[in-house]
Amino acid sequence: MNDNRGTDDNSLWIRRFQPRPDAGVRLVCLPHAGGSASFFFPMAKAMPDGVDVLCVQYPGRQDRRGEPLIDTIPELADRVYAALLPWTDRPLAFFGHSMGATLAFEVARRLEREKGVVLAALFASARRAPSVARSENVHEQDDDGLVREMQRLAGTDAQLLGDEEILRMVLPAIRADYRAAETYRYEPGAALRCPVVGLTGDADPKVGVEDVAAWAGHTEASFELKVFTGGHFYLTQHQGAVVEAVAGRLR
């Protein structure tokens, strides 16, 4: 089944690997910098029947490799917001990993402000709160520097990093994503009205537990912090526990 809500643009942005049309809530998964919708394929398969998982596919990767890159969070948020409007006929929740958490926050803001749509929950994974500023310039480094950062976070398969032809194809998208994440500047405004759950690894070289805990200041609803063992991609080691935490909250 491939319900793309009737628009070509929507079918580009939204992927459903395990459609559950009768589910009571839709979980929108937003990938990290350099990531693709397929990163969330295992989570989509593992979710219980009550959760319909929609995975966001950014331009410039996989089947969208030939499309122009988007290198700012505001533009990405505008485009994802528009793509999700046809899916707001039932409750939505967001799961954003790393850069995807910042993007999720901005899309949630737009849904509340423009449509009065309040998420069932926002799951912010491995990302500091929007108000916690850091000076980062990975996107300005040469290709070798960008690869070193990817290796440091252990988020890319070593075999892929060793294939120069593949690297030449994917590095522009990775760089654009890093530019979007690193140039993002939080604009103070109303707190979200949805519950927020922060998730992180206890040995993440990029994000401290206190940075994730600061998400509590971005909601007027409840906040919960879940800390797992592992680094920036802790969720690949703890898929079952992460799925249970998300599904349990959405129940």
List keywords for this structure.
251 residues; alpha/beta; 7-stranded mixed beta sheet; globular
Task: Report what the structure shows.
α3 crosses α4 (99-115). The radius of gyration is 17 Å and the shape is globular. The protein contains 10 helices and 7 strands. It has 251 residues and is an alpha/beta fold. The protein has a 7-stranded mixed beta sheet, sandwiched between helices. It has one domain (8-135, 185-250): Alpha/Beta hydrolase fold, catalytic domain (Rossmann fold).
Summarize the structure.
This protein is α/β, with parallel strands linked by helices and 251 residues long. Helix content is 39%, strand content 15%. It has helices at 8-13, 41-46, 73-84, 99-115, 143-153, 158-161, 164-183, 209-213, 234-237, 239-250, and strands spanning 14-15, 25-30, 51-56, 92-97, 121-125, 196-201, 223-228.
Strand content: 5-15%
**What is the count of DSSP helices, taking H or I runs of 4+ residues?**
10
C-alpha end-to-end distance:
24 Å
Provide the spatial order of strands within the biggest beta sheet: 1-3-2-4-5-6-7
- CATH homology-level superfamily: Alpha/Beta hydrolase fold, catalytic domain
How many distinct folded domains? 1
Tell me about the biggest sheet? Answer: 7 strands, mixed
Low-confidence residue ranges: none
Q: Strand tally, please?
A: 7
The CATH level-2 architecture is identified as 3-Layer(aba) Sandwich
Query: Under the CATH scheme, which class?
Result: Alpha Beta
Helix content: 25-40%
CATH fold topology: Rossmann fold
GO biological process, one term: lipid biosynthetic process
InterPro entries: AB_hydrolase_fold, TEII, TesA-like, Thioesterase
Keywords: Hydrolase
Protein name: Oleoyl-ACP hydrolase
